Amino acid sequence: MNPARKRKLSIILFLLAGLAIAVGLATYAFRQNINLFYDPSQIAGGEAPVDVRIRAGGMVEEGSVRRDPDSLKVEFRVTDYASSVTVMYEGILPDLFAEGQGVVATGHLNGEGRFMAEQVLAKHDEQYMPPEVSKALEKASARAEEQGAKELPNY
Amino acid sequence: MWQFFHKLGSPKWFYGIAGRFMPWLLGIGLLLALSGIVWGLGFAPKDYLQGNSYRIIFIHVPTAFLAQSVYLMMAVAGVVTLVWKMKLADVFVKAVAPVGAALTFLALFTGAVWGQPTWGTWWIWDARLTSMLILLFLYLGVMALGSAIADEKSAARAVAVLVLVGVVNIPIIKYSVNWWNTLHQPATFKLTEKPTMPPEMWVPLLLVVVGLYLWFGWIALYRMQTEVLRRERRSRWVQDLMHPGGRSDVSSGGARADGV
């Protein structure tokens, strides 16, 4: 490579590195705005503003979903396995909504630390499997539970 | 290797060698992609949670993958344009930018179609979706800038700079799902780990991905050939190619070339 080209190439690489650092710092500074939602630990820690439209996300806690039999009102707890927050919602939930599944809810925190949701979206994870495999997995975990729950990981 | 690289400087040599690869790329690419799509859409098992709607990944993942790869290739070509001033690199950028835009649009569109039943919304301004939309605008910007500047050399340099500035978006797209909270799920396929998907799902997906890359090779060469012919339209070898046997009649050949 002749020296002129070498110099040009190193200038380009240098400028690209500078650009990458600048964009990296900018996105780092705006990370709370780029994050789509607050997780339950942030809400429990008081990081999320009260009475402002925000999003909260996490897993729907097992056994926490309570539906009002006379209306579309539903109440459930969203957890990140460290803290959890109670979500109140009135409306139709997406098909993928279930206990143990991820959700992202839009709404606001009221003064009592409850999350009043206007919209609930299901968050899919990166797992894909055929129905037979998932049934087999469920059976295996049920058997493991019968044999002794203490070997299961505690979250 | 350097000899091959320098040979690429000759449009005529490129035109010939591209023609030899193209039928293979198109044939094998279509065969792999179509068999993967038929397998994936028709025979692969359902997903335990999403049922049949997950099958959109057989289109969504390959197009999203290739859309980002094409941009990276354009960035490499942009460096070559700026450092070595090789015309063929600029021909490549000009030829593939619309292809990349179409792929990005397809990825966004199939994602929206999948998001409506799965998430409950067809669009959300999370980091992954937004950075992918920026990629679409980058492609459109590259196309617009390339055609806005009349002088070929300055157009090539301006486009190369724009492509290189935009390349910082690629790692942002890739890692957005790890760096920030997003509605979009993290990657199912990682280089270092086993995919979180059984082989009867990822094998057809891999077929479509490989097939689509080969198909891209074909369409890139095809569009580059066209662009090379357009740029070299006044040169002797293109004249000979267009009017075989008409070499003796120089004056009429020249008149016709001006009309092209």
TrEMBL record, chain A:
- Amino-acid positions noted as binding heme in the UniProt annotation, renumbered to this chain: 124, 128
Intervals, Extracellular compartment: 30-155
- What does this protein's UniProt record list under function? Heme chaperone required for the biogenesis of c-type cytochromes. Transiently binds heme delivered by CcmC and transfers the heme to apo-cytochromes in a process facilitated by CcmF and CcmH.
Q: Which GO BP annotation is one of this protein's? A: protein-heme linkage
> Is Zinc set as a keyword in this record?
no
Name assigned to this protein: Cytochrome c-type biogenesis protein CcmE
Upper lineage ranks? Bacteria, Pseudomonadati, Pseudomonadota, Gammaproteobacteria, Pseudomonadales
InterPro entries of this UniProt entry? Answer: CcmE (IPR004329), CcmE-like_sf (IPR036127), NA-bd_OB-fold (IPR012340)
TrEMBL record, chain B:
Q: Name one GO molecular function term.
A: heme binding
Q: Which PANTHER family match?
A: CYTOCHROME B_B6 PROTEIN-RELATED, HEME EXPORTER PROTEIN C
Membrane topology summary: Multi-pass membrane protein
Q: Which family does it belong to?
A: Belongs to the CcmC/CycZ/HelC family.
Cell compartment(s), UniProt: Cell inner membrane; Membrane
Q: Where is the Cytochrome c assembly protein domain?
A: 27-184
Q: Which domain of life is it from?
A: Bacteria
Instruction: Name the Gene Ontology biological process terms.
Output: cytochrome complex assembly
Q: Which residues cross the membrane?
A: 21-44, 56-84, 91-115, 127-146, 158-181, 201-224
Sorted keywords for this record are: Cell inner membrane, Cell membrane, Cytochrome c-type biogenesis, Membrane, Transmembrane, Transmembrane helix, Transport
One family name in Pfam for this protein: Cytochrom_C_asm
The protein depicted here goes by the name: Heme exporter protein C
Q: Name one GO cellular component term.
A: plasma membrane
Protein role: Required for the export of heme to the periplasm for the biogenesis of c-type cytochromes.
